Amino acid sequence: MYLVQSTQDYYENLPRVADFDRLADPAGYMPLPDDWVVGVADIVGSTQEIARGRYKTVNVVGAAVISAQLNAAEGKRLPYVFGGDGAGFAVWPEQRAAAEAALREVRAWAQLEFGISLRVAMVTVAEIREAGHDLRVARYAPSEGVDYAMFSGGGIAWAERRMKAGYITLPKELGTKAPDLEGLSCRWSNIASENGVILSLVIEPAEGVSDDAFAKVSRKIVRIAAAANRAGHPIPKNGPGFQFPPEGLSLEAQVTHKGRPLWLEKARLLAMNLMIWALFRTNMRLGKFRPDVYRQEVGQNADFRKFDDGLKMTLDCDPATQARIEKELARAAAKGLIRYGLHAQDEAMMTCLVPSASENTHMHFVDGAAG
């Protein structure tokens, strides 16, 4: 058992790391206290949902898990990771009841609004360690305004497997209120590749491979990507495109309507987005909001690469970089060091959490647009 001081500020007090390459080093991660609680969520049949053309909906439901947890924590920092069709997070023991309630609320909301079944579960860090795994965390700060949790030790992946196998879950309750999803939005257009393809990449250590051995492979891949134009960043330097009406208008209405008629919420959002579109078109300031600054911050704050019991990236790749990545991955897999998956597509998509448009704390989750 780890003798780690358990407070709600434990994660907030961890150092912020600005160099992504350093996060491949296992020594840069700190163990979460035993009494902290891990939450995981995953969409049932996400592959089928994506095949039906609902990948943006899948992304929004995954991001809603994080949005609900951040709002339930009332602004207190907590570690979380976006997984496209789900999410993982951890909270201090006093936050467990609120976190469980928020998970159940998102599960009920996803079923009611979209007909999507969401698995949800919670387990303590102590239980993860008793099962022979660990949960360590680091804080990656791509910009001054935001930071994202990076996880290692296999604990999140173990909890997800146990949840999918039906061993851990949260009981369903009737009368669950709507989740607080304030700040969740999906207004930006998909982002076309500028260098060749948008490459979705997932790498995990093979069974029995040490942290150090996996870290060596991860460093090689990260450095190959870093040598590409803008390190493979899929978001243009001046931000993605914004069209009117936005592609995600109907989807966002289902996030924000809170029991109001959907047509009325769509009308409200349409008016609001017309004003936003006009501000971006004219670059006109509105109070503290500066469209040009906000656009630049979108790319700076984007979560397009992460360590989550493995390495996951969404890159804008030129053919030479893609070939080098594929060659290195094939070599590592042949040595029995990793398992990996790749998918090339034309566009990336983005789902956002915006506590305030006039501050630099807005968060943007990037994924391949083809699922």
Can you put this structure into words, describing what you see?
The structure is a single chain. The chain has 371 residues and is of the alpha+beta class. It is 35% helix and 22% strand. The chain has helices at 46-51, 55-72, 96-114, 125-130, 155-164, 211-226, 249-256, 262-282, 291-300, 319-334; strands at 16-17, 30-31, 37-43, 80-82, 86-91, 118-124, 136-140, 148-152, 184-185, 191-192, 197-205, 302-303, 305-307, 311-317, 338-345, 347-353, 363-368. The strands form four sheets. Strands 9, 10, 12, 16 and 17 form a five-stranded mixed β-sheet that branches. Strands 1, 2, 7 and 8 form a four-stranded mixed β-sheet that branches. Strands 4-5-3-6 form a four-stranded antiparallel β-sheet, sandwiched between helices. Strand 7 and strand 8 form a beta hairpin. Helix 2 (55-72) runs antiparallel to helix 3 (96-114) and helix 6 (211-226) runs antiparallel to helix 10 (319-334). It is globular. The two termini are 39 Å apart.
- Beta-strand content bin: 15-25%
Q: Say how many strands there are.
A: 17
CA distance, first residue to last residue: 39 Å
The gyration radius over C-alpha positions equals 20 Å
What's the order of the H and E elements?
Answer: EEEHHEEHEHEEHEEEHHHHEEEHEEE
Characterize the overall form. Answer: globular
Low-confidence stretches: none
What is the helix fraction of residues, given as a range?
A: 25-40%
Largest sheet: 5 strands, mixed
Which class do the helix and strand fractions yield? alpha+beta
Q: Number of helical segments?
A: 10
Overall mean confidence score, pLDDT: 91
